[in-house]
Amino acid sequence: MLVVTRKTEESVIIADNIEVTILEVSKDRVKIGISAPKDVKIIRNELLDTQNINEDSSREISKETLESLFKFKKED
Amino acid sequence: MKIETRDFGTMEISEEQILEFPNGIYAFEDAKRFAFIELEKGRYPAWLQCIDNIRPCFIVFDPWLICKDYEITLNSGEKAMLGVNDKTNLQVLCIARVPEDYKETTVNLKSPIVINMDTKKAAQVILPKNYPYRQPIFKNNTNETEKED
């Protein structure tokens, strides 16, 4: 991972056309501004993680696994 | 009404079981109506089955069964969307990921489903707190939340 230290209002440029600017820094949060072409998708990582785990969690479950879950319900 | 379910074939559900997700669920933004299916009142796992389609379907648990000191916070946008005030009856569910070996089942404590039980409006929220996306439920340490990097 590339690590750079920046001050408020300083920025980094990625691939000529994406600019990431540090707008505000407080104790445990940083406000950043991103200027990028419209076709560049920008998403908070926890959103992507939630999407991925939702897809994973909605997969088909086998009959055997389902029956084990029912057993868990009875033993609980 | 009768609906097609992923895990139970055709099933009769009642009006009270229907939850409305105005924004859908992450990765399934078009899924706006789900049936909350309990095989026995108040017992887990329970199911969230999309009404208009056989997918998605989720197996859900009560997060407090897995993490005793679990805390949820809603921001003002989420409160407005769900119509939550101090007197609202809330129900919180967390989605399970059930692999072939069910003992490896994990639940997502980071992004729970929050339901306004008075209006049946529901949403998946992402908590600011550092809860894990994959908290094992069949380990001995189920009362302690494992930190995820």
Task: Summarize the entry for a quick read.
By secondary structure, chain A is α+β, with helices and mostly antiparallel strands. Chain A is built from two helices and three strands; from the N terminus they run βββαα. The A-B interface holds A 46-47, 49-58, 60-62, 65-66, 68-70, 72-73, 76 and B 6-7, 25-28, 39-40, 43-45, 55-59, 95-102, 105, 108, 110-111, 124, 126, 133-134.
List its traits:
heterodimer; A: 76 residues; alpha+beta; three-stranded antiparallel beta sheet; 2 helices; 34% helix; elongated; B: 149 residues; mainly beta; BH3618-like; nine-stranded antiparallel beta sheet; two-stranded antiparallel sheet; 7% helix; globular
Describe this protein's structure:
The complex is a heterodimer of chains A (76) and B (149). With 76 residues, chain A is of the alpha+beta class. Chain A is built from 2 helices and 3 strands; from the N terminus they run βββαα. Chain A has one domain. Chain A has helices at residues 45-57, 63-75, and strands at 11-14, 18-25, 30-35. The mean pLDDT of chain A is 90. In chain B, 35% of the residues are buried. In chain B, the strands form 2 sheets. In chain B, strands 3, 4, 5, 6, 7, 8, 9, 10 and 11 form a 9-stranded antiparallel β-sheet that branches. Chain B has a single domain, classed as BH3618-like (Roll), CATH 2.30.290.10. Chain B is globular and about 40 Å long. The termini of chain B are far apart. In chain B, β4 (33-37) and β5 form a beta hairpin. With 149 residues, chain B is mainly beta. The A-B interface holds A 46-47, 49-58, 60-62, 65-66, 68-70, 72-73, 76 and B 6-7, 25-28, 39-40, 43-45, 55-59, 95-102, 105, 108, 110-111, 124, 126, 133-134.
